[in-house]
Amino acid sequence: MASEVNTVGGRRPLSGRVGLTVLAIVVSVVSVLPVLWMVSAAFKTRSTVTDGNLIPREFTVDNFVYVFTEVPFVRYLWNSFFISVVITAVALLFHSMAAYALARLKFPGREKIFMAIFSTLLVTAPVVLIPLFIVVRQLGMLDSYAGLIIPAIFNAFGIFLLRQFYLGLPKELEEAAVLDGCGHWRVYWNIVLPMSRPILSALAVFFFLANWNAFVWPLVATNDQSLTVVQLGIASFQTQYGSNWNYILAAATVAALPMLALFFAFQRQIVESIKTSGMK
Fold first, then answer.
1. At what angle do helices 245-276 and 62-70 cross, to 10 degrees?
2. Which residue among 55, 94, 99, 202 is least crowded, i.e. fewest CB within 10 A of its CB?
3. CB atoms within 10 A of CB 170
4. pLDDT averaged over the chain?
5. Are the CB atoms for 73 and 233 separated by under 8 Å?
């Protein structure tokens, strides 16, 4: 009987954990393999880029030299970086203020406003692409940084996630500050924002990566080559050099570096923010 109990209580859960570990390893390898292949191919010559080997037989850095000398790729990187940073900073400020008001302040129509904001998550980007283009054109913001930045600031997901996070914060600190004479703005700036650093860090990563990878809206809103973002730059590079995959993959590797760096630097904040701000 003791051996049967040990089998039921010990070996079966252990075998289950082993199975989950093996599954996690397989999924991780499948997910990482395309990235490794892209980086490897970026260091291959044109004749060996499609040979299927993960390790280059002829190692070269000429692909990166070509990317940075033959096309204004630095300008593409700067445009994407500038646009992503500005959108992220402004969006975090406005989203946190809106979420705090929806979570803590009591005013008529608060729940209806929140539901209206939340309902925009059900509308896909292609549905609003043409109306958004018409509005931006009427405002004279096409072919400008404003036309690339302002339409991308609002994001219902950020407001929703921050509101859920604020609903889980203890009210005692805010109530004590109000008793000491602090207004809503001071409570928000001095108490709520410092307590929001984990969720704001995670949202900063989400917003930055989303705008760094933006393709459709910059394609529609700009014709000026000086405003080309990195994803459009890679697309035009592929059109110009359709068979030179070594150059294309080198450019894609450079564009992927900021995304990988941000993910590995803030992966803990991303996981913790999702855990602490779940569906309340």
1. 90
2. 55
3. 8
4. 84
5. yes
Spatial neighbors of 12 by CB under 8 A, at least 6 apart, are: none
Half-sphere exposure of 203 (CA within 13 A, CB side): 28
The 8-class DSSP code of residue 192 comes to I
Q: Is 88 exposed, middle or buried (0-12, 13-18, 19+ CB in 10 A)?
A: buried
**Which structure tokens are listed for 231?**
């994803």
Write the CA distances from 205 to 38, 108, 213, integer angstroms.
23, 34, 12
Question: Are the beta carbons of 273 and 198 closer than 8 angstroms?
Answer: yes
Q: Give the closest residue to 251 by CA, choosing from 49, 45, 27, 76.
A: 76
Q: What is the pLDDT of residues 168-183, one digit of tens each?
A: 888 888 888 888 788 8
pTM for the whole structure: 0.83
Query: CB-hemisphere CA count at 13 Å for 219?
Result: 12
Tell me how far CA of residue 45 lies from CA of 34, 52, 82, 124, 255, in angstroms: 18, 13, 32, 41, 20
Cβ atoms of residues 255 and 238 within 8 Å = no
The burial class, CB within 10 Å (0-12 / 13-18 / 19+), for 243 is exposed
H-run or E-run covering 223:
none
Q: How many other C-beta atoms can be found within 10 angstroms of the C-beta atom of residue 36?
A: 11
Residue that wins the pLDDT comparison between 76 and 21:
76
